[in-house]
Amino acid sequence: MVKAIALYLPQFHRVSENDEWWGEGYTEWTAVKQAEKLFSEHYQPHVPLHKNYYDLLDKKTMDWQAQLMKKYNVYGMCFYHYYFQDGRKILEKPSENLLQWTDIDMPFCFSWANQPWVRSWSKFYQGGGFWNSKIEKKQGKNGDEILLRQRYGAEKEWTEHFYYLLPFFKDKRYIRINDKPVFIIYRPADIECLADMIDKWNILANENEIKGIYFIGTNVNCPCMDSLLRQKMYDSEMLVNNREDYEEACYRIIQTELQQDDDAYLCGFPGYDDSPRRGENGIVIENSTPDKFYSLMKVLCYLTEKKGKEFVFVNAWNEWGEGMHLEPDEKYGYAYLEALKKALDDYKDFKEDDLDMERIGHTESEQSISIRRNANMVKALDKWLCIKETGKTLVSFFKKNKFQDVAIYGIGILGRHLITELEHDENINIVYGIDRRKNESLLMYSFPIYGVNQKLPQVDLIVVTVIHDYDKVCMTLRRWYDGKIVSLKEIIDWVVSYE
């Protein structure tokens, strides 16, 4: 029987850091309450049912959540775990309280959100209403905008981190796979010492009568991880002015899974809209309904059981600031929870032949795919030209982040322009290119060109110039490469925002 685990955001209570960075009294609810419609049919703001703007430090809140998840057959919660350089923690109190509140029946595990915290909630910063000038003064000479740094240290730091987690791992409610406590890492490729850290943790686990840790990496295949969680498989290239239809996103999720032969854990989502945090720079996946969510989760539950897996994930239980929540709201009530429960009940009746009927959406024609691909490329080129018109170049991104040896995926229109721009800087070395094509035009370059199914040499960074299929390209590259990968679009957006 497949069991559902929901991602859980512990941001709904006051902490001193948020008071300082974003304004007195800031919690996730601040962004949720101030959300605005960006177009006439835009579903914002999301209002909790009965205006239940709860505080996660209140035991009654977590008890209510535990009862709700049991009623609608949500097996457990996966708490985001924020642990930074030198053991700095934030938003840790809800999970620490749960550890003490043993009478609350809430199976749980952790997902380490191991990226640094940066000033990226542009709606608040650019609007001038929430960014704190004290932090501005604390920035370094290079305009350092990192709020919490992420450094992984060595054995001493790994050991301290493990022993912080040990009481949770030993809790009888902690979720296990193969009798090992589950620990998800959001960006495993960022941890250069990952293999050594995992070895150390497994040694420490055995010394503390635990059979090891079951590590899951999000989206990125790493040889030292036990498994993979495929999360947020919608097209991350869509922005608002950019919107995408929920059915199209779900269709791509299912098609991606049908083309894979790995044993990844699957993750569905009830919707997505982070405009409460990012305003017009946000991403909106629109037209989600409980019925469409039911259809998606029914297929994912079926595929999960077919893979021989016990758990399917849902993103998320309470990501209200990203419009991604199972918790009831005033528009749909409990309908998304009811849809998930029904999917968990009905998936065994699903038949392989039904995949043609329940693709959740329609098959895009080659013409419409081409139109969307070209539109995304034009948007990227337009932003790039605006950068050039101000006298800037993309080289600043590489210099600021100290990327010298780089590789370029996709030697098409965007790739050729990027190569020209980088070759004008003597401190940047294009080590090789990667391209699916084999033609004479690629012979003009002084660096070698690799195919997509070859072992790739290590560089500081691979830049993917393909806009439309970035997620799919990353999955392909991860079979042969475990270093840093970034999209050209992310570089362009970085230069627009921070330079």
Number of strands: 21
Which percent range describes the beta-strand content?
15-25%
- Cα-atom Rg, whole angstroms? 23 Å
Q: What is the average per-residue confidence, as pLDDT, rounded to a whole number?
A: 85
Residues in helices, as a percent range: 25-40%
Q: Say which CATH homologous superfamily of the largest domain is assigned.
A: Glycosidases
Low-confidence stretches: 125-144, 233-238, 356-364
Largest sheet: 8 strands, parallel, barrel
**Number of helix segments?**
17
Task: Characterise this structure.
- The chain is α/β, with parallel strands linked by helices and 499 residues long.
- It has 2 domains: 3-356, TIM Barrel (Alpha-Beta Barrel); 366-498, Rossmann fold (3-Layer(aba) Sandwich), CATH 3.40.50.720.
- It contains 17 helices and 21 strands.
- It has helices spanning 16-22, 28-33, 59-71, 93-100, 122-127, 133-138, 155-170, 194-207, 246-258, 275-278, 290-306, 335-346, 366-389, 395-400, 413-423, 470-477, 488-498, and strands at residues 3-8, 74-81, 108-112, 117-118, 146-148, 176-177, 180-185, 214-218, 227-230, 243-245, 265-268, 272-273, 284-286, 311-314, 318-319, 324-325, 405-409, 429-434, 449-450, 461-464, 485-487.
- The strands form 5 sheets. Strands 1-2-3-7-8-9-11-14 form an 8-stranded parallel barrel, surrounded by 5 helices.
- Helix 7 (155-170) crosses helix 8 and helix 13 packs parallel to helix 17 (488-498).
- The longest helix has 24 residues, at 366-389.
- The radius of gyration is 23 Å and the shape is globular.
- 38% of the residues are buried.
